[in-house]
Design brief:
Elements (H helix, E strand, L loop, with lengths): L4 H11 L6 E8 L2 E8 L5 H14 L5 H4 L5 E4 L2 H9 L2 E6 L5 E5 L28 H11 L5 E8 L5 E8 L5 H12 L10 H7 L11 E3 L2 H8 L4 E5 L5 E4 L17 H30 L7 H11 L6 H21 L2 H21 L5 H16 L3 H21 L1 H16 L2 E2 L2 E2 L7 H4 L35
Antiparallel strand pairs: 1-2, 2-4, 3-5, 4-5, 6-7, 7-9, 8-10, 9-10, 11-12
Helix pairs in contact: 5-8, 9-11, 9-13, 9-14, 11-12, 11-13, 11-14, 13-14, 14-15
Length: 477
């Protein structure tokens, strides 16, 4: 690099031509010329004044490293690296006659405070959530896991966005083969712009066209810690308040942090309820179409009479009214989410009551399908994962179509296809839908076993350190 400040100034101006927030300040201190390069929209001017200019004015002839008391301090001989540092919010200092540039961290930090989780509300547990600042999120995780075993590896992904990505895992627990595979997949990403979690999810997942989520997304640091302790890995990125957990299994999407803060009997009941709602969300609308059109003999005679009387004056056949009501449910859900909170709640309540009543009174749909649609929506909302809940609701549509053609046989065939598909899926080489065929496999999948009985970690993700609990209830003689 040319040691002249005028040469470096010319290069910076070429790189930042036409950008009004780029600043180049000339300073003459003790007979030595200095140049400061920065973007004034990214730096904190008070920090520059206090920790850069004032020390230089007091000791102009001393070495820069000895004078400036900034922890975020780097040196480089590459002017291209200095340009990238300016873009990232650093201040670049060039001393005339020296070939090196000083990269000084004086960036303006604007971030929202740590708040309660908004999408994963639970009754018990910590009330802290990740925010958009990656350093703050790593700080939360370091405090929750104060151990040298917690490894944090950072990546810069995206040619233009330079998105900072951090991968966390417990060195003595995580499977090294999973860590190496994740590193290979992240390093292979070559794009101009990367956003998390959606971009990273689609770029590293095994099945590109699978409807089922293959990565678990969370905004809770305590939940991320719990999965780290099981041997899994956590991906966090700058600009996103969500973290990605992997490798994950089908059963993890039905687990909630609440399960471990209440009695294990209650935790087991709620977990079984969520799994039942998974089947209910997919099968209930299809079952309605089937018994309305093909198999009414499967129901008690009184129920059949009630069902037939409600369908007597309905304009459309069961297939059309069922799909229409399911789509109406999705429209109301989206309207509730997208609108402001008070207006969204009003739309959800008033829209559901008014539209449902008018549709029934106009004989466009029966009373029964309104009940079926409401139960289907409620059942899907019980599932803790938004991604799994959305996938399950979408699966109900092909089930409805098959039931409209083949009746209950079509519904049974569709469930068989789903379970076959789940059994052949994998994430990071780990089976996605490993059936809990043994007692140890059931303990934290179908049921929530007592804490003192969860002595082993999942065998798939931590083969080298499976011991989680060594002496449970050792106080009891």
């Amino acid at each position: 690099m040319n040691p002249s400040v005028s040469a470096s100034e010319q290069f910076f101006y070429e790189q930042f031509s036409g950008q009004s927030d780029f600043q180049s300040k000339k300073l003459l201190i003790g007979g030595i010329e200095y140049r400061l390069f920065y973007l004034d929209t990214l730096i904190d001017s008070s920090h520059v004044q206090e920790f850069i200019l004032k020390p230089l004015l007091s000791k102009p002839l001393n070495d820069v490293r000895e004078v400036i008391s900034i922890l975020d301090y780097e040196e480089t001989n590459q002017v291209e690296e200095a340009v990238q540092a300016v873009v990232c919010g650093k201040t670049v200092l060039h001393r005339d006659g020296e070939s090196k540039l000083y990269l000084l961290g004086a960036d303006l930090k604007k971030e929202r405070t740590i708040n309660i989780p908004s999408n994963e509300r639970i009754l018990r547990g910590a009330n802290e959530a990740f925010i958009e600042n990656l350093d703050t999120n790593l700080n939360l995780m370091r405090k929750l896991v104060p151990s040298t075993e917690l490894v944090v590896k950072t990546y810069s992904i995206g040619r233009l966005s330079k998105t900072k990505v951090a991968v966390m895992y417990i060195k003595s627990v995580a499977d090294p083969s999973f860590v190496e595979e994740l590193d290979r997949r992240l390093m292979s990403i070559d794009s101009d712009y990367t956003e998390s979690p959606g971009f990273i999810d689609e770029l590293i997942r095994d099945k590109k066209f699978s409807l089922f989520p293959q990565l678990l997304i969370t905004e809770r640091p305590d939940r991320a810690r719990a999965y780290l302790m099981e041997g899994k890995m956590v991906i966090a990125t700058s600009g996103s308040p969500d973290a990605i957990i992997l490798p994950i299994t089908f059963w993890s999407f039905f687990q909630s942090p609440d399960d471990y803060h209440i009695s294990w009997l209650l935790g087991t009941f709620f977990r079984l309820l969520r799994l039942a709602c998974f089947l209910l969300t997919i099968g209930l609308p299809a079952f309605y179409v089937s018994v309305s059109s093909f198999n009414p003999q499967l129901l008690p005679i009184n129920f059949v009479n009630t069902l037939q009387s409600s369908l007597k004056y309905v304009t459309f056949p069961p297939l059309i009214e069922t799909i229409a009501m399911m789509l109406l449910l999705e429209i109301l859900r989206e309207a509730t989410i997208r609108l402001a909170s008070p207006a969204g709640q009003t739309i959800g309540v008033v829209g559901g009551i008014v539209i449902g009543t008018v549709i029934v009174q106009s004989n466009l749909a029966s009373n029964t399908i309104v009940i079926v649609a409401a139960l289907t929506g409620l059942a899907s909302f019980i599932i803790p994962s938004y991604e799994m809940s959305s996938a399950v609701r979408l699966l109900s549509y092909p089930a409805i179509l098959l039931s409209s053609v083949f009746g209950l046989l079509g519904l049974a065939f569709f469930f068989m296809l789903i379970f076959i598909y789940l059994c052949q899926m994998s994430t990071m080489g780990q089976p996605y839908f490993t059936p809990p065929s043994s007692l140890s496999g059931i303990r934290d999948t179908l049921i929530r076993s007592p804490i003192w009985n969860l002595k082993k970690r999942p065998a798939g993700t931590s083969p080298y350190n499976q011991t989680r609990l060594r002496h449970p209830r050792s106080w009891k003689k």
